[in-house]
Amino acid sequence: LWQESAGEQTQLKGVQARDSQREGYAVTTVRILDQEGAQALGKPAGTYVTLTVDGLARREEGAFGRAVRAVAAELTQLLAGLEGPVLVACLGNRAVTPDAVGPKVHDHLLITRHLQEVLPGFRPVAGLGAGVLGTTGLEVAEWVRGAAEHVKPAAVVLIDALAARGLDRLCSTVQLSDTGLIPGSGVGNHRMALNRETLGVPVLSVGVPTVVDAETVARDLLADSGAEEAPLLAGRGRRLFVTPDSIDAKIRELAKVVGYGLNLALQPDLEIEDLDALLA
């Protein structure tokens, strides 16, 4: 799944892949069609989308608005056919900046489930941002499942920080899928899976890579310099994670992009300017 070229993936049985553009940003979509494809890539069958929003860091004109619309368009496709209330679960620890994507996205969510009498034209949206096991004493799957049983949503959308596969993806991509996720798996802290099997409804996930392990950093730097990979790297540095020096600003910006994109996907009659007014 993590090959650089989507074209290479089409050589695998049970896998379809394509590269495209959305609002001027590169999009790689990989669809795992069956068990053979799932075994080949080590991922559950489903759709995986990587949206590269590198224009944000370069401060290109209109970069924020284009990124929001691109995220909204990709989410809209994943939500197709799922009508009714949506539960958005924002995972992470606000006190740890690289893990604060979920809580920061929660700040930008338009919550409407309790306003159906005064806003009947809005899709019911409930938001959850209770924290992590270390701050709540509850497994993430426990409180998400409890909320889902009460809200009875048509779908659950999970927001979380990810560990990047390479330096080029760090804080520059938004990754979406319709297969759920396993919280903490990117940093070796596997928790209970959150997917259709455990929650009983379709589960989408939206993630932003905010950390990368030291071994990956070393491998990427060696590759960029044209040097041969050092055998001593194998397995070393996998428990050491690094993040950009400007992570605070990047988290704030990317969380707003994801939050606004999700709002536009769930409330398609709104524009970015409407969200600015409603969430002020």
How many strand segments?
9
Q: Please, what is the average pLDDT?
A: 88
Secondary structure tally, helices: 10
Task: State the order of secondary-structure elements, H for helix, E for strand.
Answer: HEEHEHEHEHHEEHEHEHH
Beta-strand percentage? 15-25%
> Roughly how many Å is the radius of gyration?
19 Å
| Oligomer type | single chain
Q: What separation lies between the terminal Cα atoms?
A: 39 Å
Shape: globular
Largest sheet: number of strands, sense, barrel closure: 9 strands, mixed
The low-confidence parts are none
Blueprint (SSEs and pairs):
Blueprint lengths: L5 H4 L5 E8 L2 E8 L2 H7 L4 E7 L10 H17 L6 E5 L10 H7 L17 E4 L4 H4 L3 H12 L3 E9 L9 E5 L18 H4 L3 E11 H12 L15 E2 L4 H20 L5 H7 L2
Helix pairs in contact: 3-9, 4-9
Walk me through this protein's architecture:
With 280 residues, the protein is of the alpha/beta class. Helix content is 34%, strand content 21%. The protein is built from 10 helices and 9 strands. Strands 1, 2, 3, 4, 5, 6, 7, 8 and 9 form a 9-stranded mixed beta sheet that branches.
Would you summarize the structure shown here?
This protein is an alpha/beta fold.
Question: What distinguishing features does this structure have?
Answer:
280 residues; 10 helices; 9-stranded mixed beta sheet; 21% strand; alpha/beta
